[in-house]
């Protein structure tokens, strides 16, 4: 399994009734495939997995597998408070022929480093699929440290990590001491730094609605190694990243998709959608970003 490129943690659209809109979900997957992203993550934070029942998550895994049908790598998120639930999602991923699973530390429980490792190893034993670790201490309450990696020594399925701590020291440590683990940027406004440190992967929620611009930064930095142009693209993207971190992350991602004509149906409670002023601000930010990036890359896409 190779995680090179832009991996989109896909949103989950809803019907007016609040149920999952599986037809719209299929359309979004097709849109992402047509947009040339390099992989799709189902059941991530952007997909609001925490607000779904087990049955809903299993249905999304099945639908994604059927729609993608091997055209792109499919990664299934296993996030859950209970290890037993993570096992259910990991086994479903294997059953539906997913390419990999995303495994983080269980939230709320505040496990020790050895307990996080035991969780990962237990999920690995249940599914035996390539694993992308997910280090997101702001959501999980704990960070993956050196004793965690030591406890995973010898686990051949751990091949990548979505590093979402926002701590540049974590990036430096991974690049220096764990070259066998492929690094994927999980903190959007640090993407340029990640690419400079040799990362070849970016799991980015914004690629749900501006995939071409995310692909452009990846291709510029990783394939062309043109960091002068990369800095210009990144500068153009920073206002969007600032907006997304303003407190309504998933709501903003979904509204960005709506601006592309995709059906999203809002967000699950307790979240609430953007107000009119926020929508207009986001629309202007996206429009400006697209025009600027297009001028930088010469309208090649």
Describe it.
By secondary structure, the protein is an alpha/beta fold. It has a single domain (5-224), classed as Aldolase class I (TIM Barrel, Alpha-Beta Barrel), CATH 3.20.20.70. Helix content is 49%, strand content 12%. It is built from twelve helices and eight strands. The protein has helices at 22-34, 54-68, 83-95, 113-127, 137-140, 146-151, 168-177, 191-196, 211-223, 227-244, 249-259, 276-297, and strands at 5-9, 39-42, 74-77, 100-104, 131-135, 158-163, 182-185, 201-203. An eight-stranded parallel barrel has the order 1-2-3-4-5-6-7-8, surrounded by six helices. Helix 1 packs across helix 2 (54-68), helix 3 (83-95) packs parallel to helix 4 (113-127) and helix 11 (249-259) crosses helix 12. The two termini are 27 Å apart.
User: What is the C-alpha radius of gyration, as a whole number of Å?
Assistant: 18 Å
* Overall pLDDT metric: 97
| Multimerization state | single chain
Structural class: alpha/beta
* Strand order, largest beta sheet: 1-2-3-4-5-6-7-8
CATH class, anyone? Answer: Alpha Beta
CATH topology (fold) name? TIM Barrel
Tally of strands: 8
CATH homologous superfamily name?
Aldolase class I
Put the structure in a nutshell.
The protein has helices at 22-34, 54-68, 83-95, 113-127, 137-140, 146-151, 168-177, 191-196, 211-223, 227-244, 249-259, 276-297; strands spanning 5-9, 39-42, 74-77, 100-104, 131-135, 158-163, 182-185, 201-203. With 301 residues, the chain is an alpha/beta fold.
């Amino acid at each position: 399994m190779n995680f090179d490129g832009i991996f989109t943690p896909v949103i989950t659209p809803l019907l007016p009734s609040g149920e999952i809109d599986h037809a719209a979900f299929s359309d979004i997957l097709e849109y992402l495939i047509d947009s040339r992203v390099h992989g799709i993550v189902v059941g991530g934070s952007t997909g609001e997995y925490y607000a779904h029942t087990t049955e809903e998550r299993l249905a999304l895994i099945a639908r994604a597998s059927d729609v993608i049908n091997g055209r792109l790598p499919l990664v299934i998120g296993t996030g859950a408070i209970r290890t037993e639930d993570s096992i259910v999602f990991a086994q479903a991923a294997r059953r539906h022929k997913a390419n990999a699973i995303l495994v983080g530390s269980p939230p709320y429980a505040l496990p020790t480093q050895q307990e996080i490792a035991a969780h990962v190893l237990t999920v690995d034993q249940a599914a035996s699929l390539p694993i992308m670790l997910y280090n997101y201490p702001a959501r999980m309450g704990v960070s993956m440290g050196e004793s965690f990696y030591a406890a995973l020594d010898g686990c051949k399925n751990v091949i990548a990590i979505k590093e979402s701590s926002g701590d540049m020291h974590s990036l430096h440590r991974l690049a220096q001491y764990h070259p066998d683990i492929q690094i994927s940027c999980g903190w959007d406004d640090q993407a340029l730094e990640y690419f400079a440190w040799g990362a070849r992967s970016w799991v980015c929620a914004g690629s749900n609605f501006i995939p071409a611009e995310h692909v452009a930064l990846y291709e510029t930095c990783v394939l062309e190694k043109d960091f002068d142009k990369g800095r210009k693209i990144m500068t153009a993207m920073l206002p969007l990243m600032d907006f997304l971190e303003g407190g309504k992350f998933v709501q903003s991602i979904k509204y960005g998709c709506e601006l592309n004509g995709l059906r999203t149906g809002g967000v699950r409670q307790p979240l609430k959608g953007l107000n009119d002023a926020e929508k207009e601000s986001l629309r202007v930010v996206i429009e400006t970003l697209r025009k600027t990036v297009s001028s930088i890359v010469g309208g090649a896409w």
